[in-house]
Amino acid sequence: DQQVKQNSPSLSVQEGRISILNCDYTNSMFDYFLWYKKYPAEGPTFLISISSIKDKNEDGRFTVFLNKSAKHLSQHIVPSQPGDSAVYFCAASATHSPGGGADGLTFGKGTHLIIQP
Amino acid sequence: ETGVTQTPRHLVMGMTNKKSLKCEQHLGHNAMYWYKQSAKKPLELMFVYNFKEQTENNSVPSRFSPECPNSSHLFLHLHTLQPEDSALYLCASSQVGLPLHFGNGTRLTVT
To answer: Is the pLDDT of residue B2 over 70?
Structure first.
């Protein structure tokens, strides 16, 4: 049973527009959420995170929103750029640690974002 | 340079072979992890080592055997694997309060 779900395997967005990546979770014990970005032939790289005590975190073009009551989070990228084309993974931790501690992180399947020129 | 180096990048092995994957982290982190990424599946946690002590074995078959000789090095010993074990194996490290930092992975093909 998947505890972190990314229901869109792929998303195509025009350059300059907003990209919205969605993630749902089922485990109410999750208290820290992260987004990772992965290019082909490379490992995932950390992008942005949010603690469950917040509902928004912003870092430049990237903003993550958390709706705890709906167990839903999203990442907004604006404006989208060609270099943003990658697979984006949503991840969650139940140990209030961005590393996941002894339990590691629980990941979704990823969403392949394609930025069209 | 990611700070976490994995070798080899690609590995093809037969079902009767024995091979090892190596991971080295240059970040001074105290925890190291093995994750498996199969096609169309989420990254799955396999093993966790904290200060060289194994703290998690996520129901991984015994044909996968981890080894952590010190806080900078992590190995995954493989023997009598099955074709369904073909996947991308990712090593990661972390420190308290910091996100997981991944290597570039080893693409394993079992024939």
So the answer is: no
